[in-house]
Amino acid sequence: METPFTPLEIYIKEFNPVDYFDTYYAAGKGSLDGAWTSFALKNLHALFSSGKIKGDTIIDIGTGPTIYQLLSACEVFKNIIASDLLEQNREQLKKWLRKDPDMLDWSVIVKMVCDLEGNSEKPAEKEEKLRKAIKKVLMCDVLKKNPFEPLVLPPADCLLSCLCLEAPCKDVEAYCEVVKNFNHLLKPGGDIVIIKDSEMLQCSSPSKPTSALSNSTQFGDIETILKDLSKEINLIFAMYARKLSECSFADASYVQEFDDILKEARSLENHLKQKRESFRSELTRIANTLQK
């Protein structure tokens, strides 16, 4: 049975960013500390290290209390604008920027990104680089024509959104309108990057789950919409499908190339496994023959 759609007022009143972090991202116990985290970090690294997304400014829509999605982006963009509807999320992010004693600990995930970049000894430097790159933490409501009103932001080079739009959008039509509206926030030719989980269930607390559009039967409709929209605007999206234990990509050749490399590596691994089994069988056959 699907969870009924949760009004934004519930998120505003009850969403607890610390519970959210502990439930999903805390090292060793978060439910997303594994396949999803690896998927997101690897693909964001592949995307932003490809050299095909460039510019000075990136807007992160629905940053939440998280920083993982920006760790690779700060290697490309010197100006990062973080944003979220919820004051408690914005405050939690500001705690990390200020290095408050009770800030959320992202050190394990920072280390994972440094390993991907070949800088495993420099997680502290990575954190400082991201802190310097985040220039603003703004209130944002994606359901408004200008999500940042009353502010009017200069057009950005790239817009990023990870695990955000499922909460405010009650149906696929609303989702489509929000994504199309993002194009007004960009310079001509700017890129929109969306990463989502096919079954992500947002939470206010571990004991009080709330609805997310992506865990509904409309998931396939969203994927189709994103593919269609990518023909009109520079939209890049990566979809993590839990049931398939794999990801599906659309209209991002450089991310697709990364996916192809992974598939080729898995194919080679299976081929070598078959060869090993064949070799063992042959050794067994020879040994049995010699014993006779």
Automatic annotation (TrEMBL):
Keywords: Methyltransferase, S-adenosyl-L-methionine, Transferase. Coiled coil: none annotated. GO terms for cellular component: cytosol. One of its GO terms (biological process) is methylation. GO terms for molecular function: N-methyltransferase activity; S-adenosylmethionine-dependent methyltransferase activity. Belongs to the class I-like SAM-binding methyltransferase superfamily. NNMT/PNMT/TEMT family. This is Uncharacterized protein. It comes from Leptobrachium leishanense. The lineage of its organism: Eukaryota, Metazoa, Chordata, Craniata, Vertebrata.
